[in-house]
Amino acid sequence: MPNARTHDGITVVTGIALAPVSYVALVAQGQPSTVSSVDSLVLVGAHLLSGIMFSPDLDIDSAIDNRWGIFYWIWRPYMWLTPHRRWFSHGLVLPPLLRLLYLATILTLLFISIAWLLGQIGIVVPSYHLYVADYLVSLVYAYPRRTWLCAFGFITGGAAHSIADWLATGGKRFLRRVGLRVPKNNAGDRY
Questions:
Q1: Domain boundary assignment for the chain
Q2: What is the model's pLDDT at position 50?
């Protein structure tokens, strides 16, 4: 498998390639160039965020979960529940969105738990999680096209990683079948 740096490079290169393609496609649909620029930025930004911070390799202890700094612990339950390189982590469409849903769920549960604990000692915390949820829902209704572009970018960011893994695995398998000796675990394959 490619290492984390290689995956990051793949994510950035595919994001760079995605920018002009999305811009041209949006302009061809009749959108003004300024709107197409912002929409392309949303798409590419979601692609980069997904590939770099929400990588499929969050299911193992790797350089990816270290990027979360002191919040790396958020991904530990995900790591324990998700078998590495299965459809649930390295699939093309659903897994990137499930990682986003997982983070939202963990943050909501964390906020509710803290609010409950503070309530036990007499400190009342406003329902900020409901305000945030209402705000996000209003954004989805106000900007449906950008919401879809964000979701699509999130999917392509995770897909770039998964496809690179599949090609590396299939390529090694092919080379072994034609008689070339390829080690199963290279030192460069570290995550």
A1: 4-189
A2: 92
